[in-house]
TrEMBL record:
Signal peptide: none annotated. This is Uncharacterized protein. It comes from the Eukaryota. InterPro entries: MEMO1_fam. Belongs to the MEMO1 family.
Length: 323
């Protein structure tokens, strides 16, 4: 039995439980008492999209998704995040038995891991890459906090099912979504989809601009480009992100894939989102309710308002779906 350490604690977020508790409470306090006309958490909201940057940047945005997340019947939580540490095709599962947080440890559901791994032909994540990867870890303190609010004791906390998603084709996302469909339909499962949205700037190889609001005709800027005389750059970033968010809300996996192909938007969790959307779209076909199995965006933010071409920013989105 091995434990994955909280490798980003002390840098990306506080490593002292009391200080981390204060930070999370501060972020959660910014969320209104109701969202989309519902008290929180939203009943049946068992899947969320939330960002994974340092809490100083994305903690407040993430609070909206976690406030919506309904864990009341959860016995396991799937966490799907993109790989930032190594390249591979398809999906890979953790080899650890526990994931640590400054608050306490989560138990990995090894039985479910093995079943999903076999059904979707997934690989194992190399332990050193698992430890280095932040896209899953950044969700654990928030998840622990919400579990404390939901369950009487850590012994009652749901287990976690960490899955890192590499480069995937449209077909592979649909195939993996089909494997996860039965878990998605089971009210004992909740899902966290880890993703930041637009990474804008030359250091991300994505510095697009549209002077007239047409995202189908994006120009490329570089560090030495003059400051645009038209709308500020952050308006282009907003337009590109809004198009991606509309695709996410559409419920169509193909629409999401096509949107990213059109704009090149650097949504780092595009493949985890794609897998989730493929599964949700399949589930929606079985339901007669347009309010279910479709993401609703509740919060959007950027790390900075880019005006100059040599600047940069990362965008953050929180969304949920009722299942």
């Amino acid at each position: 039995m091995t434990t994955r350490p909280a490798a980003k604690a002390g840098s990306w977020y506080e490593d002292v439980a009391e200080k981390l508790e204060t930070d999370l409470n501060t972020f959660l306090a910014t969320v209104p008492e109701t969202v989309d006309g519902s008290s929180l958490p939203i009943p049946g909201a068992r899947i969320i999209i939330a960002p994974h940057a340092g809490y100083a940047y994305s903690g407040e945005t993430a609070a909206w998704a976690y406030s919506c997340l309904d864990l009341s019947k959860a016995k396991r939580v799937f966490i799907l995040g993109p790989s930032h540490t190594y390249g591979f095709s398809g999906c890979a599962v953790t080899t650890f038995s526990y994931y640590s947080t400054p608050f306490g440890d989560f138990t990995v559901d090894r039985d479910t891991i093995e079943r999903v791994k076999e059904a979707a032909d997934m690989d194992d994540v190399p332990p050193r890459n698992d430890v280095a990867e932040h896209s899953l870890e950044m969700h654990l303190p928030y998840l622990y906090k919400r579990c404390e609010q939901t369950f009487k004791s850590p012994e009652d906390f749901p287990k976690v099912v960490p899955i890192i998603v590499g480069s995937t084709s449209r077909k592979n996302e649909k195939d993996t979504g089909r494997v996860l469909l039965s878990y998605l339909k089971d009210e004992e499962n909740a899902f966290i989809i880890s993703s930041d949205f637009c990474h804008w700037g030359s250091r991300f190889d994505y510095a697009v601009y549209t002077p007239d609001g047409d995202i189908g005709k994006l120009l490329s800027l570089h560090n030495r480009s003059p400051k645009p005389s038209g709308p500020p750059i952050y308006e282009t970033i907003r337009l590109v992100d809004e198009a991606a968010m509309e695709a996410v809300k559409s419920g169509s996996h193909d629409a999401f894939v096509e949107n990213l192909r059109l704009t090149g938007n650097t949504v780092c969790g595009r493949h985890p989102i794609g897998v989730a959307m493929a599964a949700l779209e399949l589930y929606a076909k079985e339901l007669d309710d347009e309010n279910k199995s479709r993401f609703k965006v509740v919060k959007y933010a950027r790390s900075s308002e880019v005006i100059w071409p040599d600047d940069s920013s990362v965008s953050y989105v929180s969304a949920y779906a009722v299942l």
